[in-house]
Design brief:
Elements: H1 12-26, H2 38-45, H3 49-61, E1 65-68, E2 72-75, H4 86-92, H5 100-124, H6 127-144, H7 150-164, H8 168-172, H9 174-188, H10 194-210, H11 214-236
Antiparallel strand pairs: 1-2
Helix pairs in contact: 1-3, 1-4, 2-3, 4-9, 5-7, 5-10, 5-11, 6-7, 6-10, 7-9, 9-11, 10-11
Length: 239
């Protein structure tokens, strides 16, 4: 039964939502296809109809499904999905699903957003934000030395950077960007020596923001992305 793969920290509704979301993104259920009936899904997951219905409602809200009378619950084309929804990003960017086209688009989004955000952060960051960025960097340093969670520290570093740019629209994108970054970081951090190799580049970015070097911060952010792109393609063995 699918339920055996779930984390005990998730509610039943979250578990079913996560499984169905992954199934749609992986192509188990394709655009235009009608999902199994509520009863069949209840049997599959070993849960009640109420739980299934709540999961379906969540996927409808994300633009992935539509419920039609006399037809059933149908998978929509990805063009209708809320592509910035953190859950949708996580499902689509799962290593078993991630393809070259999506990897390219995710990295292109990083190139569009992060270097500009770094430039603005160097100009606008408050003293508290600069201290928080340095603290996150030090957590990364400790994690490389074997004392902490590198991915969590790296995510904190980049989240602080995005917030420090002082742009309300970029801040609104933080959840989506964090989902994108987490996927990239989790894959790339598996590269032997990868975190240690990227640490000096994070130090360059941190120092540029601390000193108000806008151009230097932009260059450092772009260098990090280019390295992450190379590492990600190498890990996923894209041609």
């Amino acid at each position: 039964m699918d339920k055996k793969h779930y984390s005990s920290r998730l509610t039943f509704q979250e578990q079913v939502l996560d499984r169905l979301g992954q199934d749609i993104c992986s192509g188990r259920y394709t655009p235009g296809e009608v999902l199994p009936s509520e009863m069949e899904l209840c049997e599959r997951f070993g849960i009640s109809r109420i739980v299934v219905r709540e999961a379906i409602k969540s996927l409808v809200a994300k633009g992935m499904l539509v419920v039609r009378r006399k037809v059933g619950t149908t998978v929509l084309d990805p063009m209708h999905w809320n592509l910035f929804d953190p859950s949708v990003i996580s499902w689509r960017a799962h290593p078993s699903v991630l393809n070259q086209a999506l990897s390219r688009d995710l990295m292109e989004l990083r190139r569009i957003v992060e270097p500009a955000a770094a430039r603005l952060a160097a100009q606008r960051a408050s003293d508290d934000e600069r201290r928080a960025l340095r603290a996150a960097y030090l957590e990364m340093e400790r994690a490389v030395a074997g004392e902490g969670d590198y991915v969590a520290a790296d995510l904190a570093f980049h989240s602080i950077l995005l917030a420090a740019c002082g742009n309300q629209f970029v801040r609104q994108m933080q959840d989506a960007m964090s989902a994108i970054l987490r996927t990239s970081f989790e894959i790339v951090s598996q590269k032997p020596g990868g975190p240690a190799f990227s640490l000096p580049m994070h130090e360059d970015l941190c120092r540029a923001i601390e000193t108000g070097d806008a151009k230097g911060a932009e260059r450092a952010a772009l260098a990090l992305i280019e390295q992450a792109d190379s590492d990600l393609n190498a890990r996923l063995k894209f041609d």
